[in-house]
Specification:
The protein has four helices and no strands. The chain has 165 residues and is mainly α.
Length: 165
């Protein structure tokens, strides 16, 4: 028995579609994993930038304190009392700024890490075999509808006539 050309074409299209669906799902999963890796790397970069910025702020605060102390000594002023208190206030403000820089960078990194986790979870939810299986099932259904045994007249699915009269 030889199958008709339409059925053969349907089987070939189903095979190609199934393979394409599998490949596309694999590519989507790989892309999501790459996005997750990129977001994680951005998070690590944000943390490092925050650490460096905080160190720079602390160094600037310490240099300012040292400059104020040196200026006081150069002018033969005693570095105590209100002069020392003002210099210490400037230093403390610089340290607070450094801590804020670090906290902001930590928040930025957390956002990147969350996005990385979401992309990784999305990649986990992509199943190439399932995608190919659904394509295959749909193709089998389409091809099977071409067989003669499916073409038999059947009234089982015809709507009932409820008209009056």
């Amino acid at each position: 028995m030889c199958a008709d050309p339409i059925t053969i074409l349907g089987i070939a299209a189903t095979a190609v579609g199934t393979y394409s669906s599998f490949q596309e799902a694999q590519a989507r999963r790989k892309s999501m994993r790459a996005q997750a890796d990129a977001r994680a790397e951005e998070g690590r970069d944000a943390e490092l930038r925050g650490i460096e910025a905080a160190e720079d702020r602390r160094e600037k605060a310490a240099l300012l304190f040292a400059d104020q102390r040196a200026a006081s000594a150069a002018n033969n002023n005693v570095f105590d009392g209100s002069v020392k208190r003002l210099a210490l206030d400037d230093y403390e403000a610089g340290v607070d700024d450094a801590l804020q820089e670090r906290e902001n960078a930590s928040r930025e990194a957390d956002g990147f890490y969350r996005r990385a986790a979401i992309a990784d979870a999305e990649a986990d939810n992509i199943n190439p075999v399932f995608s190919a299986g659904t394509t295959l099932a749909g193709g089998i259904y389409d091809v099977s509808s071409d067989f003669d045994w499916m073409r038999e007249e059947s009234t089982a699915f015809e709507p009932a006539d409820y008209s009056v009269g």
